[in-house]
Specification:
The chain has 2 helices and 5 strands; from the N terminus they run βαβββαβ. A 3-stranded antiparallel sheet has the order 4-1-5, covered by helices on one side. A two-stranded antiparallel sheet has the order 2-3. With 65 residues, the protein is an alpha+beta fold. The protein binds FE3-S4 cluster.
Length: 65
């Protein structure tokens, strides 16, 4: 079982792209102009931590499982 769950409140995302530039490994821009995580269950947070900390609307949460 994965150790962390990456949760994004997609409605809140303003599409600033910070998560995509800080963590392109796991974040991508969608056709709706908002970002989404590629994987939501991870063992190693890696750059997801920075993405969560730097999102201007704080819509990315990391849940420890
Ligand atoms: Fe959206 Fe936050 Fe990324 S506003 S584009 S989830 S940094």
């Amino acid at each position: 079982m994965a150790k962390y769950k990456i949760v994004q409140d997609h409605e809140l995302c303003i599409g600033c792209g910070t998560c995509v530039s800080l963590c392109p490994k796991n974040w991508q821009m969608g056709d709706d102009g908002k970002a989404s995580p590629k994987k939501t269950e991870v063992d190693d947070l890696g750059c997801n931590q920075e993405a969560a900390e730097n999102c201007p609307v704080q819509c990315i949460k990391i849940v420890k499982k």
